[in-house]
Amino acid sequence: MSQTKPLSTSMRHDCSCSKQRVLEAMTLWGIKDIEEMINEACGENATCQMCGRSYEITLDELKLILDHLKKYQKC
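-> structure tokens emitted (75 positions)
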């Protein structure tokens, strides 16, 4: 009886997260949520659930997201 040796391969997953993807995802939150973050007068910190990478979202970036949401709400 021959024995089969298990393959010794390692699976590697490279997360494709980026700050840009985080910012794009934040556009799904809605105007009220973004306004609340801005009114708290601080930036936000977002952490990727896949790889744990952390992204600092500045107040200026939150304002840009809000402008984007308001622009497309009118369409």
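The two ends are 71 Å apart (CA to CA).
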